């Protein structure tokens, strides 16, 4: 029988994979993909809690699913702006490698 | 909710999620991400969240991944050449990620509620689009309008950023 804990652990492992991707990879586009993985891990645990919290009429708690809808929308906007910045940066510097972009480094 | 299907899709999601950060070729990473998102959509549907599952396929596996592939194509990125790896930073990243996993296991393991199976639903959730729509245009009307402004601002920002400067 699948329990709430199984979904939470799977979502936690997915978040850790995304986190490791942000820490390990030096390509901005891969870092953006790893960010998407982390956002989706949060979505999975939200939907699992939504299904777990059945209200008195026997329906899942839809508030969490509305929240997931908002997260997906904001993630789409974030990816669009992030990739536009990557394109602008690539025009300027001909690189997508974060170690080559150190203007703001202290 | 079949336990077998849950584990198949969960493993598929995790394996292809790991492939995203392991592959050196950006196109292979992007395609792994599509498979990972499709498996995640299957997990949403196993949780009776049909609307969210379909939105996941349409927005993530459809729109966002096309955007990623389009940018990879536009920038003409090849597989990264092997650079000197900063071993201390890499080891730090792996250690922190493992610490996170261990912590999540310990928290979820000590969480009594998490051991209970999901309670049964009294009725089918096939009308969840209707329910979510009522919530979106009722209780969450203001956030819904704000999110519209966010999309508009993002669109304008993207156009401004990607315009070639004319001197």
What is the structure about, briefly put?
The complex is a heterodimer of chains A (106) and B (167). Chain A has 106 residues and is mainly α.
Question: How would you explain this protein's 3D organization?
Answer:
The complex is a heterodimer of chains A (about 110) and B (about 170). Chain A has helices spanning about 5-25, 30-50, 60-95. Chain A is an all-alpha fold. Chain A has one domain (about 5-100): Helix Hairpins (Orthogonal Bundle). In chain A, helix 1 (about 5-25) runs antiparallel to helix 2 (about 30-50) and helix 2 (about 30-50) packs antiparallel against helix 3 (about 60-95). The mean pLDDT of chain A is about 90. Helices cover about 75% and strands about 0% of the residues of chain B. Chain B has two domains: about 1-80, Up-down Bundle (Four Helix Bundle (Hemerythrin (Met), subunit A)); about 125-165. The mean pLDDT of chain B is about 90. The radius of gyration of chain B is 21 Å and the shape is globular. Chain B has six helices and no strands. Chain B has about 170 residues and is an all-alpha fold. The interface between A and B is large, with 74 and 85 residues.
**Which percent range fits the helix content of chain A?**
over 70%
Number of domains of chain A: 1
Main β-sheet description of chain A: none
Give the number of helices of chain A: 3
Mean pLDDT score of chain B: 88
Global outline of chain B = globular
Would you give the CATH topology of chain A? Helix Hairpins
Structural category of chain A: mainly alpha
Kindly provide the radius of gyration of chain B, computed on alpha-carbon positions and rounded to a whole number of angstroms: 21 Å
CATH-defined architecture of the largest domain in chain B = Up-down Bundle
The CATH H-level homologous superfamily of the largest domain in chain B: NADH-ubiquinone/plastoquinone oxidoreductase chain 6, subunit NuoJ
Mean pLDDT of chain A: 90
Helix-strand makeup class of chain B: mainly alpha
Query: Which second-level CATH architecture of chain A applies?
Result: Orthogonal Bundle
Report how far the terminal alpha carbons of chain B are from each other: 61 Å
Uncertain parts of chain A: none
Number of domains of chain B: 2
Query: Could you give the count of β-strands of chain B?
Result: 0
Q: In CATH, what is the class of the largest domain in chain B?
A: Mainly Alpha
User: Radius of gyration of chain A, rounded?
Assistant: 18 Å
N-C termini distance of chain A: 52 Å
């Amino acid at each position: 029988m699948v329990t709430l804990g199984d979904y939470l652990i799977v979502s936690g492992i997915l978040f850790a994979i995304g986190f490791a991707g942000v820490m390990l990879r030096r390509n901005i586009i891969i870092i953006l993909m790893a960010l998407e993985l982390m956002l989706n891990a949060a979505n999975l645990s939200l939907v699992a809690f939504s299904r777990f919290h059945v209200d008195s009429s026997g329906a899942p708690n839809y508030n969490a699913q509305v929240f997931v809808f908002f997260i997906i929308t904001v993630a789409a906007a974030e990816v669009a702006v992030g990739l536009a910045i990557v394109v602008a940066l690539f025009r300027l510097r001909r690189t997508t490698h974060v170690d080559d972009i150190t203007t703001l480094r202290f | 909710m079949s336990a077998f299907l849950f584990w198949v899709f969960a493993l598929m999601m995790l394996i292809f999620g790991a492939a995203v950060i392991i592959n050196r070729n950006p196109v292979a990473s992007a395609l792994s991400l599509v498979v990972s998102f499709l498996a995640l959509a299957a997990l949403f549907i196993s949780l009776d969240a049909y609307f969210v599952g379909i939105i996941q396929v349409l927005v993530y596996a459809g729109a966002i991944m096309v955007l990623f592939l389009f940018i990879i194509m536009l920038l003409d990125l090849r597989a990264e050449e092997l650079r000197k790896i900063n071993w201390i930073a890499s080891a730090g990243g792996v250690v922190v990620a493992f610490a996170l996993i261990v912590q999540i296991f310990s928290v979820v393991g000590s969480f009594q509620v998490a051991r209970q199976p999901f309670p049964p639903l009294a009725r089918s959730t096939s009308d969840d689009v209707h329910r979510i729509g009522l919530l979106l245009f009722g209780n969450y009307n203001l956030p819904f309008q704000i999110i519209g402004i966010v999309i508009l601002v993002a669109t304008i920002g993207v156009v401004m950023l990607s315009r070639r400067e004319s001197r």
